């Protein structure tokens, strides 16, 4: 195989590919033989009812939990994600629902929390301010009054934007977002959905965990549905309608015919 064709094959590989992933907690099996593809430059929505396994799967990808069995491929190569450091080193950043932001710190301090830049043993405030400003500008986050304002003073949508900017600052290739629009109003939800689209347009892989099917169909290129610890279906978003996604979420399959479109139909 020539170098060019090898590169072409590699580019067709999902950025992250999971195969046959299992996870137990004592006698309880939380994940069963999970397969999942997360391609670059696409938003994949992970849907499922409470207890379907979305959080456990996310934490396995993020290195919080270690899978008991299965394979993970990153850019076509097998990898082992043993902890959060392994995940971050690959370029995986997770924005959890609680956002993990410190209310008493300002935006710059939050974006560099635990990764502060030093110059001659002191905090390099100018460098960090500049980098934070560039990242926010690159994501077109323009509604914050000052990058030195405390996070406690931000709206829900602004907080979500800062958490995402913090994630993409570290050369991330995959950003996972857990219920990013939960408890947000209409205007703030639109702000966050636009931000997700910009991440995709920058070539990142994005996985969005969401119960809100309006949001899912607004931003998702692909949809994967979990049911009782299994990924029961994953395909292009255009092959689903809302009713079919709900049925997969609640029963693990489709009982009616014609509920899901396939290529060419």
Question: How would you explain this protein's 3D organization?
Answer:
- The protein is an alpha/beta fold and 265 residues long.
- The chain has a domain at 12-100 and 166-251: Rossmann fold, CATH 3.40.50.
- It is built from nine helices and twelve strands.
- The strands form three sheets. It has a six-stranded mixed sheet with strand order 6-9-10-3-11-12, with helices on both faces.
- The chain is globular, with a radius of gyration of 19 Å.
- The protein starts with a helix and ends in a 14-residue tail after the last helix.
- The model is unreliable at 1-10 (pLDDT under 50).
Strand content bin: 25-35%
Rg, nearest Å? 19 Å
How large is the count of helical segments?
9
CATH architecture of the domain at 12-100 and 166-251, please? 3-Layer(aba) Sandwich
Brief write-up:
The chain is an alpha/beta fold and 265 residues long. It is built from nine helices and twelve strands. It has a domain at 12-100 and 166-251: P-loop containing nucleotide triphosphate hydrolases (Rossmann fold, 3-Layer(aba) Sandwich), CATH 3.40.50.
């Amino acid at each position: 195989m020539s170098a060019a064709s090898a590169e072409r094959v590699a580019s067709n590989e999902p950025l992250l590919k999971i195969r046959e992933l299992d996870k137990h907690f004592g006698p309880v099996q939380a994940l069963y033989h999970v397969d999942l593809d997360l391609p670059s430059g696409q938003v994949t929505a992970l849907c499922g009812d409470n207890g379907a396994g979305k959080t456990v799967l996310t934490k396995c990808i993020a290195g919080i939990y270690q899978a008991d069995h299965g394979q993970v491929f990153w850019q076509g190569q097998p990898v082992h994600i043993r902890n959060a450091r392994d995940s971050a080193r690959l370029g995986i950043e997770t924005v959890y629902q609680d956002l993990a932001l410190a209310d008493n710190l300002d935006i710059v301090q939050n974006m560099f929390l635990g990764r502060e830049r030093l110059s001659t043993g002191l905090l390099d405030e100018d460098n960090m301010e500049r980098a934070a400003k560039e990242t926010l500008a690159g994501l077109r986050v323009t509604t914050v009054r000052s990058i030195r304002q405390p996070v406690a003073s931000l709206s829900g949508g602004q907080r979500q934007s800062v958490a995402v900017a913090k994630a993409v600052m570290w050369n991330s290739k995959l950003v996972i977002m857990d219920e990013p629009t939960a408890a947000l109003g209409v205007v703030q939800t639109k702000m966050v959905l636009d931000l997700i689209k910009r991440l995709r347009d920058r070539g990142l892989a994005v996985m969005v965990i969401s119960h809100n099917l309006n949001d899912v169909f607004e931003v998702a290129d692909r949809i994967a549905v979990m049911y009782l610890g299994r990924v029961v279906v994953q395909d292009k978003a255009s092959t689903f309608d809302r009713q079919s996604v709900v049925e997969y979420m609640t029963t693990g399959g489709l009982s009616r015919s014609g509920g899901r479109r396939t290529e060419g139909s």
